[in-house]
Model the fold of this input.
Amino acid sequence: MNASTELILELVRVEKKFGSFQALYGVDLSIAAGSVTCIVGPSGSGKSTLLRTINGLESIDGGAIFFKGELCHEEVRGGYRVPVSRTKSREQVLNFGMVFQSFNLFPNLTALQNVMLAPKTVRGLSQSEAKQVAKEHLARVGLGDKLGNYPNELSGGQQQRVAIARALAMQPEVMLFDEPTSALDPELVHEVLEVMRSLANDGTTMVIVTHEMNFARDIADELVVMADGRIIEQGAPREVLSNPQTERGRAFFAAIGEQHEKQVS
Done:
């Protein structure tokens, strides 16, 4: 890919609890600008929670998150770490674009209007500016001919591509994807993955939680395997996939292999 050696995002000993349940245990992760990091692992391993801490949807209970060297979502005041102001929080969140499993499009708005909305209301773009930005990003995801279509007139894959365009229209520096193909029928997965592959080729910094193992192997600069709230494997995808270092990692990949065999048999 087009990864640089400059770190854009750093997670240092990040901890997250939900009541008495600990979802993340001291997670360390460094993301280089222009890189693609794919996070895989069994259900309940903390993958989605990790993404949600990055963009501030979940607060952390320990450790720190840095964006371009600046403490994210918190600041030190009077010797204590406290949440940043609402204004500062909004500024920091704009660094991240998030694409969820569900598309979350407004059903009463066209594809164009769905993508225009946030640039107008959050970024403060004029109607004409937001329209131009929305058109550009819908064309970028292959939907330049669907501007006037409502969500119920689009396939699941097309709706997810609108959601990607909506995130891109906010001009984030890091794109976060949380299982973006898990809600799609198998024949629609490819079109979404191709858009993400195109973004990677354009040098977009991406952190992707996925169960698409072949895609992760082909696209990622770094593959991260999580289990029980911890990173258990990390490195170049082909190395991690061919030579996992932990028993937990070997068991996960063996289970994935068995599942794949059942699907093709």
Observations:
- The mean pLDDT is 92.
